[in-house]
Structure formats: structure tokens, C-alpha cells
Amino acid sequence: MDALITQLTSASRTGDLDALNQLIAQGANLNGKDEKGFTPLIIACYNNQPNAAELLIDAGADVNEADFGGNTALMGACFKGYADVANLLIVKGADLDQQHGNGGTALMFAAMFGRNELVKKLLAAGADTTIVDSRGLSVFDLAAQQGNEEAIDILEQAQS
Questions:
Q1: CA nearest to 80, candidates 41, 54, 106, 52
Q2: How far apart are CA 108 and CA 72, in angstroms?
Q3: 23: how many CB neighbours lie within 10 A of its CB?
Q4: Domains in the chain, CATH or no CATH each
Q5: 12-30: per-residue pLDDT in tens?
Q6: What is the rounded distance in angstroms from the CA atom of residue 76 to the CA atom of residue 122?
Q7: pLDDT tens-digit profile of 62-106?
């Protein structure tokens, strides 16, 4: 792995804006991936570093780049429940309906893990409730499997 990618990954994880700015100035590949396929943006978002994420996006990082499993920064933010990061990604044009390797979406992650405020935000931004994963399960099915009645209510209200 490229030394600049290693440094970018580390600075993204900790939100070190000075180091990020230096690495960007040196021409580091903002969409480069580590051994798991994580980009600096995915790392920043997964570690709740919204300022680092914004800096990376504004410098040219692809907001929709996925890791080796097809997971995006938005999916990670929804899995972890980081509303500020998710809001940033939505504003910066993240694909709300991008599917990972098993067909899951950010909305599915939010519903499965009880991130109901994010379910609301994704729906308000236009996330599609009709997508199914590789098993044929919808966001409604996944919320039901987890006993997330609140998400089901939110999803039903969004459809009416």
C-alpha cells in the first residue's frame, strides 16, 4: 500500500485536518484504498470525523466510492448512527440508493440498527423504500426482523 494512503488513512481516522491538508497538497490519491478497500473518506465517516470528511470531499474524494464489500461512507454513517456525517454526505450528493454486495442500502442499515432519525433523514432526502436486497428483503422486512416498530411506522408514514 502506498505510503501516502497509509498517512491519509491515519489522518482521516483521527480527523487531523493539518495532516490531511498537507497530504492533499502533496497529491495523495483521495480515492486510494487500504488493504480492506477503505478509502480515506470511508475511514473518516466511520470514525465520526465530519470535518475531515468534508475536507476530503471538497478536495475531490468520491462520495460514493465503496470498499471491497460494496459499502459506502453513507452506509457506514448509517450503521454507526452518525447523523452529522450522514447529513454531510447527503448534502454532498451521496447516492442514497447505492447497494452493497448483498444489495443493502443506507436506509436498510439505518432501519436494521435502530437509527430512526437517520431513517427519517434518508426518506426526506428521497431514499427508495422499494429496493430489495439479494435475499429479496425490503427495508420493511429488515426493520421487522429487528423488531424496529418505530422504523416501520416511519416508513409507512413516508409512503402515505
A1: 106
A2: 13
A3: 23
A4: 1-95 (1.25.40.20), 99-160 (1.25.40.20)
A5: 999 999 999 999 999 999 9
A6: 14
A7: 999 999 999 999 999 999 999 999 999 999 999 999 999 999 999
Place of cell 433523514: 121
Dig out the grid coordinates for 89 from the structure.
Answer: 454526505
**Main-chain phi, psi angles of 41, to 5 degrees:** -65, -45
Integer-rounded Cα Rg, in Å, for the chain is: 16
Q: Which of 158, 108, 148 is nearest to 132 (CA)?
A: 108
Spatial distance between the Cα atoms of 122 and 131, rounded to a whole number of angstroms? 14
- Cα–Cα distance, 5 to 30 (Å, whole number): 8
Phi/psi-derived region of residue 67, left when phi > 0, alpha when psi is between -120 and 50, beta in every other case: beta
Q: How far is CA 65 from the centre of its chain?
A: 10
Report which of 95, 96, 17 is spatially closest to residue 58, judged by C-alpha positions: 17
Place of cell 470498499: 67
Rounded CA separation 60/107 (Å): 25
DSSP secondary-structure letter at 27? T
Regarding pTM above 0.70, the answer is yes
Burial class (CB in 10 A: 0-12, 13-18, 19+), 29: middle
**Which residues are registered as beta bridge partners of 138?**
132
